Amino acid sequence: MDEKIFIYFIGTAGSGKTTLTSSFKSWLELKSLNVITVNLDPGAENLSYVPDVDIRDWISLKEIMESYDLGPNGAQIACADMIAINSEDIKKSINSFQANYVLIDTPGQLELFVFRQSGKFIINFLDKNHSIIAYLIDYLLAKNASGFISQMLLSLNTNFRLKKPQINILSKSDLLNEKEKEKIKLWSEDINALRYAIESEEPSVYREINEKILQVLSDFDNNTKLKAVGKDYYGIDDLYTAIQIQFHGGEDLLKD
To answer: Would the pTM of this model clear 0.85, i.e. be above it?
Structure first.
C-alpha cells in the first residue's frame, strides 16, 4: 500500500479520543500493520500513548499563555491557529515514517478543530484524498434522547464543516448496560423510536422544534448509524472494516 490513510479522532471533551487512538494503534500493531500516532492537542497531559509526531514539539500551551498574557481558553484558540502555521513541519515529520495508517488525536475541545478554519486546512494539507473522520459520541451524553440528538447534530455539523467521509462511534460502550446500549442503537437506526423517546422526555411546547430537528436527522439517516467500541478492543474490528470499505472497497490489508 503506497498511500497513508489519515484517521482523525474528533469528539467533545472527555469522549475518549485519546483512549481510542491508543487502543486502535495497539490493535493495528497486533495485526502487523504499520501505524503512527499524531497528537494535535498542545495542551494534552498524560497521554496513554507515546505520539510519533507531537504538536507540543512546536507549540507549548503554557508558553503561549505567558507570552501573550492569555487565559487557558484564549491560549487554546491561539494554539489552534498556530497548528496550521506549523503544518509543513508536521507533514514532513509524518512523511518520514513508513505507515499504512496515521491516527490523529485532535484537541480536546471539538470547536477548536472543527469550527475554526485551521482544522479544515490541516486535513486538506496533510492529505485531502485519504482522510476520514472518526467522530466519537460520548456514551454519557447519549443516554437520553435529547443528549443523543444533540450529539448527532454536532456530528452532522462536523461532517458539513470538514466534508470528509465520516464514521460515527459510540465510545466507551462497555460502560453502558445492555439495555442502554440497545436503546441507543435503536435510536440510531429508527427515527420513530427516537421520536417517541424525545416526546416522552420533552414538554409539548418543544414539539415543533423537536419535529424539525428529527426531520433533519431523518434526511441524513445514514449519518446517524453508530459503531460501538469499548475496552479490550471491543468493536475495533468493525471500525477497521468500515475504513477498509471506504478506501479499498472492503479489501483487507490483513490478507495481503
So the answer is: yes
